[in-house]
Design the sequence.
C-alpha cells in the first residue's frame, strides 16, 4: 500500500461567518415583515396568507441555517481529512463522515448557481442514501445523486482549499501507480 501523508483541510470560517450573518439578517427581515405586515403594492405579496407563509418559512429555514453556521463556527475539527483510509467529511449539515477509498469511483467538480461542489463518486450510491436516517439528509443525498451522479457533494464554500488542486490530489491518490491508495 502506498503511504501518503495525511492532508487536513480546515473549514473556511470566513465564509461560515458570512453565512451566519446572512442567515441572521434573513431571519430578522422575515420577522419584521411578519410583525409589521408592510404594504407592498403587489396583490399577491400583500395577501396575508402569502406573507405569513413566506415569512414563517424564511424564519424556519434561515433559523436552521443560522444554527448550523453557529455550530460550525465552534467546530475545531478540520473540514476534510484525507489519509490512507479515505476521505473524512466534516464540512456541512450533510457530512457523510468517512468515505473509504474502496467505495470511491472518482472525483470531479460541478457548479450550481455560481457555487462549486466537489463531487465524490461512490460505487454504491444507494447505500449512502439509504444509510441516512434523517429525512432532510436523505432527500439532500437523493437530490445530489439525481443532479450530480453521486450523493456526496461538498461545497467549496465550506473548506479553505483550492477545489481544482484538491480534486487532482484525490484523483491522484485514487489512481496511484500500484493500484492501491
Sequence:
Amino acid at each position: 500500500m502506498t503511504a501518503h501523508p495525511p492532508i487536513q483541510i480546515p473549514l473556511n470560517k470566513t465564509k461560515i461567518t458570512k453565512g451566519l450573518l446572512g442567515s441572521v439578517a434573513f431571519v430578522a427581515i422575515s420577522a419584521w415583515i411578519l410583525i409589521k405586515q408592510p404594504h407592498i403594492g403587489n396583490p399577491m405579496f400583500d395577501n396575508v396568507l402569502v406573507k405569513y407563509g413566506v415569512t414563517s418559512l424564511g424564519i424556519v429555514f434561515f433559523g436552521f441555517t443560522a444554527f448550523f453556521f453557529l455550530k460550525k463556527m465552534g467546530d475545531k475539527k478540520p473540514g476534510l481529512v484525507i489519509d490512507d483510509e479515505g476521505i473524512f467529511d466534516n464540512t456541512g449539515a450533510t457530512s457523510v463522515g468517512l468515505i473509504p477509498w474502496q467505495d470511491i469511483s472518482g472525483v470531479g467538480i460541478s457548479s450550481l448557481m455560481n457555487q462549486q461542489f466537489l463531487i465524490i463518486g461512490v460505487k454504491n450510491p444507494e447505500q449512502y442514501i439509504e444509510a441516512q436516517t434523517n429525512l432532510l439528509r436523505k432527500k439532500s443525498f437523493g437530490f445530489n445523486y439525481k443532479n450530480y451522479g453521486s450523493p456526496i457533494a461538498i461545497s467549496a464554500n465550506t473548506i479553505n482549499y483550492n477545489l481544482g488542486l484538491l480534486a487532482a490530489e484525490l484523483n491522484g491518490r485514487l489512481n496511484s501507480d500500484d493500484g492501491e491508495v
